[in-house]
Amino acid sequence: MARASRGKSRASEGSTLAIAPGLDVTTPYYRALARAMTKRARVWTEMAHHDAVERLKSNTLTRGETLATAQLGGADPSGLARAVEVCEGEYGYDEVNLNCGCPSDRVCGKGETEKRFGASMMLDVERAAECARRMAEASDRAKITIKHRLGVRYDKTMMKHEETDCYDYVVNFVEAIHEAAGVEHFIVHARSAVMGGLNPDANRKIPPLRYDEVFALCDEFGRCDFTLNGGVNSLAQAKELLDREDGKLAGVMMGRAFYKHPCMLADVDRVIFGDAACEPALTRRSVIQRYGEFGDGVYAARGADIDVKSRKAVARKLFKAVSGVTFGTSTGSKMFHRAGDAMLAARYDAIPPDPSDDRPFSVNLMECCVDVMDAAVLDKPLVDVKPEGDQTFYVSPREDGWDRRNRGEDGAPDACARALKTITI
C-alpha cells in the first residue's frame, strides 16, 4: 500500500527496497550484478572510512550505477564533511549515509574515543549529531541519512537492563540528529548492538528483533522516514512489512538473503515496485551475459597494458560477485567455484600471457557457466524465485566429479553425469 496517509516520502528514490551494505560483498562488481537484475532497488556501497574517501583511496566508491548510496564510517566531523564533498562531487552520489550501527571491534574498539565509530556513535550522541550536521552542511544535493541500531549494550546475555538499550534512548538519539542536522531518513537495524562480547555475526543472531519499536519510531517522528533492516529473508516478508500499519515504513533493507541468493533480485521490480514483468523474463543466462559485458568494460577501462597479476585479480573479483547465481540449483556452489577456479587458471595464469588469448571476460564467464549448468537451469525464467532455492543438489562421483571430462563433444552430460544422484532436502 502506498504511503498516502503520511504525505510525501523524504526517502531517496529506490529506498523502498534497499540492498544492505556488506563489507567485501557490496563491491562495485556485486552492485553491477544487482543492477543487471533490478533497475528500481537502491544499492549501497561497503562502508568506507572518511579518511580513505578524502584521499581518493577507497576502491568501493567507484561508481557506474544509478540509485546508489555511499556509506561512510568515522567520527571526525570535518573529515566526514570533506568525504561528503568527494562522494557528491567526484562520484555523483545522491545519498550519503553515516554508519552508526556497526558493532565490530575493528571500528568500536579503537583506543582513542574520537577514533571510535560505528555503533560507538550511539554512545556519544553529541558527536554523532555534530557529524551529521557537518555532513549536511557540506552537501549540495546529496541526502544525508543515518543507519543505526535500537540501542547499545555490553551484556551479551541480554538479561541486564542497560539505559543505552531501550526505546527512549533511541528516541533521544534520533531527535538529537534530526534537530541538529535536519536528517529526515533513518535506516534502523531492528536489534541492539552488543559491544565487546559478540562478533558481528553473533550480533545479527543473538539480540532479538524488535520490529514494533521501528514502527513506533514512525509514529514518534511523523516528519521523518524510517527503513527497517534486520531479519528480512524474502520479498514476500519485505512486502508484508511495507504494507503493515497502512504503509508506515519508507522502506525495507535486505542484505544476507541477497548475498546468498542474488537471483531473488530479478523479482524485486515486479514484487516490490509493481512493475510489469520483464519481457522476455530474465534468466541466469541473460543476467550472466549482462554482467559479463560489465566485466569487459572493467578491463577496457584498465587498458591493454594491464599486467598478468592484475588481470587475474580483476577476474577473481568479478567471478566472486557472480558466484551465488547457482544457489539452490542442481549445480551447487562448490561445483561452480571449482569451475571458476579452473577458468581463472586456464585463462588468466599464463606468464607471459598468450597473445592469442584475447577473449573477452564475458566469453570466459559464459563458457564456465555453460560447462556446469544445464540449459534448463540457465534458461529458467527468474520469476517467483524462492528464497530457499530449488532445494536440490547433485552428489558428484567420488573420483571424477562433474566437470568437462564428463561431457561429450557436444557439451552434453555423458552417462557418468546422468548417473549423478539427486537428493532433495
UniProtKB/TrEMBL annotation:
GO terms for molecular function: tRNA binding; tRNA dihydrouridine synthase activity. Keywords: NADP, RNA-binding, tRNA-binding. The keyword NADP applies. Residues 19-273 form the DUS-like FMN-binding domain. Pfam families: Dus (PF01207). PANTHER family: FMN-LINKED OXIDOREDUCTASES SUPERFAMILY PROTEIN. This is DUS-like FMN-binding domain-containing protein. It comes from Ostreococcus lucimarinus (strain CCE9901).
